[in-house]
Amino acid sequence: xxxxxxxxxxxxxxxxxxxxxxxxxxxxxxxxxxxxxxxxxxxxxxxxxxxxxxxxxxxxxxxxxxxxxxxxxxxxxxxxxxxxxxxxxxxxxxxxxxxxxxxxxxxxxxxxxxxxxxxxxxxxxxxxxxxxxxxxxxxxxxxxxxxxxxxxxxxxxxxxxxxxxxxxxxxxxxxxxxxxxxxxxxxxxxxxxxxxxxxxxxxxxxxxxxxxxxxxxxxxxxxxxxxxxxxxxxxxxxxxxxxxxxxxxxxxxxxxxxxxxxxxxxxxxxxxxxxxxxxxxxxxxxxx
Length: 288
Description:
The protein is mainly beta. It has 3 helices and 16 strands. The protein has helices at about 50-60, 135-150, 230; strands spanning about 20-25, 30-40, 40-45, 70-75, 75-85, 95-105, 115, 130, 160-170, 180-190, 190-200, 205-220, 235-245, 250-260, 260-270, 275-285. The strands form 3 sheets. The chain has a 6-stranded antiparallel barrel. A 5-stranded antiparallel β-sheet has the order 8-9-10-11-12. It has a 4-stranded antiparallel β-sheet with strand order 13-14-15-16, with no helix packed on it. A hairpin with a 3-residue loop joins strand 14 (about 250-260) and strand 15. It is globular and about 55 Å long. The relative contact order is 0.17. The model is unreliable at about 1-15 (pLDDT under 50).
């Protein structure tokens, strides 16, 4: 997946400051904008490739020093993210901010990321976010192998099944954990098969995929020219957290995709028993 600049319009200037959702990255030290929340829907924010004056205005509005955002972990309030600084002239991070985070939950680090927001909400989220149990992991790995087999991945390649994360959450407060995962296998010396999914229990109490996306990445498609970049997490779709931005009682799943020139952000909403993409955005950083 290639990340392109979206050059979003400066929506924040139309009617004052709009509620916003950020990704909390870099071990809890960086805020990167995902989307504004407008009438229960997500809208693009200012892109890192926008005009300098547009980014500067965005930063003045949303990155005031000591400004505080709610840290979201497991869909619930779990601490704070406090703005330290931003610099609209900074190469590769013009519309991003440096922050300090304080959390009442798991410490952020590596692929354990979170969301931050000033969006008002009425529903109380479960706050559940944990590692899967051994039984959950075994059931999911069986599903993953079946899906990869269905995608024509050779049986021999499935012996070394890997993942960047597999996380249990409760998006709808029904005491039944949804599982979000990012798995991959080597399908050759210079090729990888990637699988992102959201799984939930069906009427029979067994996990099934409510959403899944399979992709093959070849070394010639990797901007660095090295397939090991994929092994380290580049191009994988990874969980940020869940958050009920539209107050319908079911939290949406937010994800992050790292590339060489920017970042991609997706949000998934449950509709008619399936998870569908409700938002797809990107933020340009700089040329590679």
